[in-house]
Amino acid sequence: MDICPKCGLPTPACVCGEIAKTSQVIDVTTEKRRFGKVSTIISGFDDGVDIKDIAKQLKAKRACGGTFKNKTVELQGNHRGHIKAILVSLGFSGEHINE
User: Fold this and answer.
1) DSSP string of the chain?
2) 68-79, pLDDT tens digit by residue?
3) pLDDT digits (tens, 9 = 90+) for 52-63
4) Engineering a disulfide at 92: which of 30, 39, 62, 87 sits with its beta carbon 3.0 to 4.6 angstroms away?
5) Are strands 38-43 and 66-69 parallel, antiparallel or unpaired?
6) Domain 25-98 belongs to what topology?
7) Count of alpha carbons within 13 Å of 94, Cβ hemisphere only?
8) Beta strand 66-69 with 72-76: parallel, antiparallel or unpaired?
9) pTM here?
């Protein structure tokens, strides 16, 4: 049985990902791009979180396109009012999300 090097628990019972989610401060901003298009930028993710999976779930729940680059998630369109509820449902702390 493998043991997690961070928390010392067996790999199936590892809680490193959950602890990393609750301690992060995440910023949600919008940015105006070329031709007047608006993008929603979600930044502040640390190394303990799978950003690719989070981006995939955000894109699926908001039915939009997007990408992840340099520890940030970019979504096409203005989604500022909806991102906090989705991130809380994914396990992030609601009081650490700045919209």
Assistant:
1) --B-TTT-SBGGG--HHHHHHHT--EEEEEEE-GGG-EEEEEE---TTS-HHHHHHHHHHHHT--EEEETTEEEEES--HHHHHHHHHHTT--GGGEE-
2) 998 899 999 999
3) 999 999 999 999
4) 87
5) unpaired
6) Translation Initiation Factor Eif1 (3.30.780)
7) 6
8) antiparallel
9) 0.81
